[in-house]
Amino acid sequence: MRPSFSLAAATAFLFSHAATAQPVIEDLEIVGKPTPGGIGFQPAVTSIADDVHWLDGMLLVIITAISLFVIALMLIVAVKYNARRRHEPKDFTHNTPIEIAWTIVPIVILIFIGAFSLPVLFNQQEIPEADVTVKATGFQWYWGYEYPDHDFSFDSYMIGSPATGGDNRLTPEVIEQLQEAGYSEDEFKLATDTAMVVPVDSTIVVQVTGADVIHSWTIPAFGVKQDGVPGRLAELWFEAEREGIYFGQCSELCGIAHAYMPITVKVVSQEAYEEWLDGAIDTYGGTPREASMAQQADGTEASQTDEAEVSPVDATEGEASEEAAPSDSDAEAAPADEGSAAGAEAAPEEEAGSDEGSEADQAETAPAQDAAEEDVPAARINPDAN
Ligand SMILES: [Cu+2]
User: Fold this and answer.
1) Residue 57 CA to ligand 1 centre (angstroms)
2) pLDDT tens per residue across span 86-102
3) For residue 141, which of 154, 158, 153 has the smallest C-alpha distance?
4) pTM above the 0.70 mark?
């Protein structure tokens, strides 16, 4: 958490210069971007976007049927009961059965729509346990991203914005910058100098807030959109099924450069994500992965020097005393689950505890990671553990 906005501005200034050092991820297909003249949706790459598109299709059928029905009635009335054909109008005023029908039928239609749309809405709003948590903060006029599990953050400026040396216009220099970053001229006003990077097929929870005015974070291909309101921390979640680059734009009118604070998300393989994460931790001065995992599992305010020495036994005992027994037994009894598999893969790359880094230590970080997974909500609530 940032203690004050002036500090945020200072870090923003510092990071704006470090930003170009963000590890580059190459060979990613651009999947989620608007197309000129397009009238449909961008491809759906999350279950949420699938649901939204399906719901949209279903509603289109219903409103088409209603529209055709009403147009047909109006045509019948216009043709059959016009003044030329019937000079003597009827003088009745009420028709109880029809009035009941036109009250009941819309209610039934709305209940039918609600029965399908509310589950979709609840699915979006019930935030699952995160594999990766990212905090997105809207600033005038750029987005800042923080990875609270690893204590680093960076800012993300549109390529061609003043922060990158431009003036929000497409110039030959900006085209060059775009190409250097792996984009084309087409992606001007969409591509940013740094991107939010997340692993594919993982549950990503994005905490959205605003630092000055209300902004809105969205990636159309993910089917997510959330206002970032100053003083509030809203959440959205998604699980992207396809690797690639996805673009979004601030979706709440936030001032003069509202159009120049796009959002770029790169969805990459788990391996590429971990590689990027290590590089980003290096670049932005975050807490190394293994150390922060052990620290979360322990749940105490371990200092940097103590982190490498946190024993896995302590970690699980600490968990047991704080939490109900089942989560502890889960943590110990599931060495074959995804978390420990990731731990086993991650172990050889371990740099953090290099002074302590015997093979036994590395093998034992796996249970601690499991425990850390159990503990994610607590870690989210208290990201400033150190
Ligand atoms: Cu904005």
Assistant:
1) 30
2) 777 778 889 999 999 99
3) 158
4) no
